[in-house]
Amino acid sequence: MRRERDPLVLGHVIGDVVDSFTRSTNLIVTYSEREVSSVVEIKPSQVVNQPRVDIGGDDLRVMVDPDAPSPNDPNLREYLHW
Q: What is the structure's pLDDT at 55?
């Protein structure tokens, strides 16, 4: 994927939350059989239950939300979601 079209760049995750990096593993998040990506919008009612998270590789780290609770006030960006 071209860097300027990468959702992590467009969403200011890369450059604001984390430094630029080379992806080295797969991450698949599924809520009730629906796979999630960084461009999928999901209603709160669809994420009531814990998701299934499949991570390739041995490096398991914390998931962060770079604009939690909102883009204007991201004071919970390093919150552990599960």
A: 79
